[in-house]
Design goal:
Structural class: alpha/beta
Largest sheet: 6 strands, mixed
Strand content: 15-25%
Distance between the termini: 50 Å
Radius of gyration: 34 Å
Helix content: 25-40%
CATH architecture of the largest domain: 3-Layer(bba) Sandwich
Strand order of the largest sheet: 1-6-3-2-10-22
Number of strands: 41
Number of domains: 7
């Protein structure tokens, strides 16, 4: 396609290399300001007129045709006297002679030149990347290739890249009937625009639309057969079958033409605020540009560049100063908005709103009284308003209390007390969605029946009696109705400031609703913070591990430092290492190995603990893997002296050596420790087995104790010998060692499933009562067997020595290496 009007005398020659959105928009802006100034020629690599690349996704999905997304048709070029050289790629620029050369030898002179060469899709250098069926998603040719592939019945597509472009491609292919899977290197989709909570909701929404996601996945090889792609192999060994593989892993500025011509190029073509390059007659605009060290791939900054460029070309002074970015996801039915410093950070305040029923999540980030970022999912209507507040630097201190509810409510209540929002609600406004209770019903019950507390309202109206997420609203209605007679509810303490729910509701809801990730919990229980806090994340991490053994992936960053590095930090920044000694027993070889380690690493202190273990104190952090490796070589594993889980099983010598021993207490202690080690619990757990009522192992002050007697074994619970001193109580008596082990594992599992995070066994027993434990474990054989079975299932994935995994230097090795030894990319993590 080519349109070449006759030359016009007396006009400056303006040549644009790039017939895409940026190049043509720049021309439109010039024509708007001075339509008669230039004789214009446009070169484009594609044999087409300018079309809207942003709308390629609806074309791929079959929702639009190419004609629907054309921006400038042939008549536009003709009516504006523009010479269009479509399908004619420029291969060279002569800056001195001011000419451009096309691939067919055609040459054209210019007075002013605009580079709008856009960007190139990045292709991963994977084996098999040259196979048929491996495509990118950049232009109409790519779309046509994908549409052709989707015509095959039962065809599957894999998209590498969980950014904006990759998700659009996957959604479009799913709409075409293909099975679509997105493979993403990071653990959050669109991590440059979305936080963890919004990323989780996006993943769920895509799944509902037929798009599966594999996160935290490293691609290793594109598998082929007969020259065509048949699958993608991941580094963990999985192979995802596919008939089409789309690479959507990013773009890079197409600056090769500018570089070859001798223009200044870094990541992109370097321009000033007037969009001029290092040659004053050559300008650049769009994705090929680098301005003040930044490259942009979104349309809004490109339009701003085009306006500045047009000013420069029409005797004005272009003043592009960079752009504040926002993103709105274009996958049909998924309403997502992101802008600015959406992840918050030090010195920032998060305001969060969640509506689990509607699938809505909103986060506004404030710093120094101004909006600096926002993420909206499910309801992005106010995205533009937040973006305007952010760009203008508006002080939002006076509207902070209603800001999260959006522009309409904020302006409607401007200058009013925040409680006025509740006061202004009509009586028909629903307060409790679970039970369908409106404001009027609550007010009538309060005034008509003399209700004075939250529990009263729950008992009479059922408001706040189910999930509890409406509790703050019900309390506000109480406060407004009762006035000075209102007394705040003093009930179960919430887990933390992020939620109104206590541990019990969180644990029960997590299992009942099948919530398998922290973002799922945050959304379903309407957390008031985007990512939880240092109090709730460790608790949730444990609850999820306990509820979904083998499927939930432990979140190391939600653990305290001791559990992250599998050693106890000391006051001088060194660590203590305690190898496990089964039942308090050891051997000369183990003792020699401990001594050798202490000498080899100049460990300053070696101490015998009260739990019949040896503690190596003063180990440097970067020595930990090597210390573990040497101890592993001697057959020792982690003693979990840092863990909220089984620490030790202390024993006496029992019938082997003691004149008074009634049972083999040492043997039972070793069996118990080997059965229970590795299991995580709400808090630390210590056991002891005494071979007779003389209780030399001090079993009656442990979390779980066993006293051996002539007739069998007494099982004790709820002892403490730390800040609190408390003796155990007898839970049950059994006749055999096997019964004792089953009961103890069942009790531990009951505690694991029912205890609150950081709640020791004696506090748990005080809360629910010893009778409840006896009923669940001692009296109910079927339940005891089920608890024991669940514990053993969880142990299948729990009994992995953390020292051995890290001693090789592969698993989380950077945790223990000084920054100076890390490669730059790893150090940046």
């Amino acid at each position: 396609m080519m349109s070449t009007p006759a030359p016009i005398q007396g006009k400056e020659r303006l040549v644009i290399i790039g017939n895409g959105m940026a190049g043509c928009r720049a021309v439109e802006e010039v024509l708007k300001r001075d339509p008669d100034r230039y004789e214009i020629a446009i070169f484009g690599t594609e044999p087409r007129v300018n079309y809207n690349r942003i709308m390629l996704s609806p074309v791929l999905a079959g929702e639009k045709s190419f004609a629907d997304i054309v921006i400038n048709d042939e008549a536009w070029y003709r009516d504006n006297g523009i010479a269009l050289h479509a399908g004619r790629a420029v291969t060279g620029i002569d800056l001195e002679g001011r000419t451009v050369q096309a691939e067919d030898g055609f040459e054209l002179g210019y007075d002013k030149l605009i580079l709008a060469t856009g960007s190139d899709p990045f292709r991963l250098p994977l084996p098999g990347s040259d196979l048929r069926g491996v495509v990118t998603f950049r232009d109409l040719d790519d779309v046509e290739a994908m549409v052709a592939a989707s015509a095959k019945p039962g065809a599957r597509a894999v998209v590498i890249g969980g950014g904006l472009l990759g998700l659009e491609a996957a959604y479009g292919l799913a709409r075409r009937g293909m099975g679509a899977t997105v493979v993403h290197l990071m653990d959050v989709l669109m991590e440059r625009q979305l936080d963890e909570s919004a990323g989780f909701l996006l993943r769920e929404a895509l799944l509902e639309r037929g798009v599966e996601t594999v996160l935290g996945a490293h691609s290793e090889e594109i598998v082929g057969q007969d020259g065509r792609v048949v699958g993608l192999k991941l580094k963990d060994g999985r192979v995802l079958p596919c008939d089409l593989l789309v690479m959507a892993v990013g773009i890079r500025p197409n600056s090769s033409l500018a570089r070859a011509a001798g223009l200044a190029v870094n990541r992109g073509v370097v321009v000033d605020d007037g969009m001029a390059t290092s040659d004053p007659t050559v300008f650049a605009v769009g994705e090929c540009v680098e301005h003040r060290g930044q490259c942009y791939g979104l349309v809004a900054p490109i339009w701003e560049m085009c306006r500045a460029l047009a000013q420069s070309l029409t005797d004005g002074e272009g003043g592009y100063e960079g752009s504040v970015l926002s993103t709105r996801l274009k996958v049909s039915g998924v309403d997502v908005f992101s802008a600015g410093k959406f992840a918050g950070g030090e010195g920032c305040e998060d305001i969060v709103f969640r509506d689990a029923g509607r699938g809505v999540y909103k986060r506004v980030v404030i710093e120094d009284g101004k909006v600096v970022g926002s993420v909206l999912f499910g309801d992005a209507a106010d995205g533009g308003w937040y973006f305007d507040l952010m760009r203008a630097g508006t002080d939002v201190s006076e509207i902070r209390d209603t800001l999260i509810f959006g522009q309409a409510i904020t302006k409607g209540l401007s200058g009013l007390d925040p409680n006025a929002a509740v006061a202004a609600m009509p009586d028909t406004q629903e307060i409790c969605g679970c039970n369908g209770v409106c404001k009027g019903s609550i007010v009538s019950a309060i005034t008509g029946q003399g209700l004075t507390s939250l529990d009263d309202v729950r008992a009479v109206t059922k408001a706040s009696a189910s999930c509890g997420s409406c509790t703050p609203l019900v309390e506000q209605v109480l406060k407004l109705t009762l006035g000075e007679d209102f007394k705040a509810q003093t009930g179960p303490k919430p887990m933390c400031k992020c939620t109104h729910h206590g541990h019990d509701i969180v644990r029960k809801t997590l299992v009942a609703e099948g919530l398998r990730s922290m973002p799922a919990v945050f959304q379903a229980l309407e957390w008031t913070t985007p990512d939880g806090c240092a109090s709730c994340r460790p608790a949730l991490n444990y609850y999820l591990l306990c509820a979904w053994p083998g499927t939930y992936k432990d979140d190391a960053q939600s653990r305290y430092i001791n559990e992250r590095v599998h050693a106890n930090i000391q006051k001088d920044g060194t660590y203590s290492v305690v190898p496990r000694m089964w039942g308090g027993m050891t051997t000369p070889d183990e003792l020699r190995a401990i001594a050798d380690v202490a000498d080899k690493f100049s460990i300053p202190a070696v101490k015998v603990t009260g739990g019949q273990r040896i503690d190596l104190l003063g180990v440097k952090k970067d020595d930990l893997p090597a210390v573990w490796a040497d101890l592993n070589a001697a057959g020792m594993v982690s003693g979990h002296a840092y863990a909220k889980g089984l620490r030790t099983v202390k024993t006496c010598v029992g019938t082997d050596w003691c004149r008074f021993g009634t049972q083999d207490s040492t043997g039972l202690g070793i069996k118990l420790e080997k059965a229970l080690w590795g299991s995580w619990a709400p808090a630390k757990v210590k056991l002891a087995v005494s071979g007779c009522p003389r209780n030399c192992a001090e079993a009656t002050c442990k979390d779980i104790g066993v006293i051996c007697v002539d007739s069998g074994y007494e099982i004790h619970l709820g002892g403490a010998a730390g800040l609190h001193i408390q003796g155990t109580q007898v839970m049950t008596r059994v006749a055999t060692e096997a019964e004792a082990m089953q009961v103890i594992a069942a009790v531990l599992q009951f505690y694991r499933e029912d205890g609150w995070y950081l709640e020791r066994i004696y506090k748990w027993m005080a809360r629910i009562g010893l009778d409840a434990i006896k009923a669940a474990v001692g009296d109910d054989e079927a339940n005891r067997v089920a608890l024991h079975e669940r514990f053993m299932i969880s142990q299948e994935t729990a009994q992995i020595d953390p020292w051995a995994k890290r001693a090789t230097g592969g698993h989380e090795a950077q945790e223990f290496r000084p920054m100076a030894q890390l490669p730059m990319g790893m150090a940046a993590q």
